[in-house]
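To the wet lab folks,

You asked to see what we're planning to order before we commit. Fair enough. Below is the target structure as tokens, and below that is the sequence we designed to fit it. If anything looks off to you, flag it before the synthesis order goes out.
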């Protein structure tokens, strides 16, 4: 038997610092309508938060999240806080998008949405025991912009927290905690990041047509790990991936999602032991 045929058993070294099943989010703590579904397999190791686009609701995104059947992944779909004025059907926006004349606002202010998302993440982290590095964000259109801006806002807050603690206590502190991953589907960045330390959260950009190059350039000012998927704009620049376009998104999640190993389980590795 050659060295390459030897099978080595290694106990998993991944630290388990949060419970296998997590408490469900509380409607009294999240100021949004939402839908939460624990992991299919009973192990809540990852949380995927989904944000819909302009004029939609959380319902189809909750259905989408459940249909993905991602391993060890709970699903949280959030509905935007503002009903679009003068529309009678359920149609929501993450931030004010139209002026009093009904014209689209060219430079919208996402601050209200970011404040709400900050409250959501704090509740999930501190009361529902989700570590930041197990929280994954996904958004489409306006929701894609909000998840990207939320990821940057979280990182800025973490940088400020660790710096303040270090300055006050004059000792080393834990490194700033970044979110696990973010996927933005046709969602442009609304701010102009000026970070001395760019955000290390892995980012998947899915865009179409002529805007692709501009999108990539703006995001590179805030993120260090970007994977950009560009598709044909035959359906328009702001559409969800078609069924045959989901492969790069699923591949991204397969690399980013954490996996909890059970007590006494071993990873099987081939080749020569080091």
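Sequence we intend to order:
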């Amino acid at each position: 038997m050659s060295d390459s045929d030897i099978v080595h058993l290694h106990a998993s070294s991944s630290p388990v610092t949060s419970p296998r099943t997590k408490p469900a989010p509380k409607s009294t703590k999240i100021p949004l309508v939402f839908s939460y579904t624990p992991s299919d397999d009973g192990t809540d190791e990852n949380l995927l938060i989904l944000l819909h686009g302009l004029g939609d609701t959380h319902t189809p995104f909750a259905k989408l999240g459940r249909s993905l059947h991602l391993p060890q992944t709970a699903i949280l779909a959030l509905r935007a806080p503002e009903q679009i004025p003068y529309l009678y059907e359920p149609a929501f926006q993450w931030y004010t998008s139209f002026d009093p004349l009904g014209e689209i606002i060219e430079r919208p202010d996402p601050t209200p949405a970011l404040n709400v998302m900050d409250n959501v993440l704090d509740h999930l982290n501190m009361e529902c025991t989700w570590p930041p590095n197990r929280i994954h964000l996904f958004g489409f259109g306006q929701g894609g912009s909000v998840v990207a801006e939320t990821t940057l806002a979280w990182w800025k807050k973490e940088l400020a927290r660790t710096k303040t603690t270090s300055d006050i206590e004059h000792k080393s502190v834990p490194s700033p905690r970044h979110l696990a991953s973010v996927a933005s589907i046709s969602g442009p960045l609304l701010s102009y990041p000026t970070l001395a330390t760019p955000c290390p959260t892995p980012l998947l950009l899915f865009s179409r047509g002529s805007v692709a190059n501009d999108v990539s350039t703006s995001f590179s000012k805030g993120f260090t790990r970007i994977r950009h998927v560009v598709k044909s704009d035959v359906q328009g620049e702001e559409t969800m991936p078609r069924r045959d376009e989901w492969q790069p998104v699923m591949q991204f999640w397969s690399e980013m999602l954490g996996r909890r190993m059970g007590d006494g389980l071993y990873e099987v590795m081939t080749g020569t032991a080091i």
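Structural context that might help your review: The first helix runs from residue 59 to 68. The first strand starts at residue 7 and ends at 11.

Thanks,
Computational group
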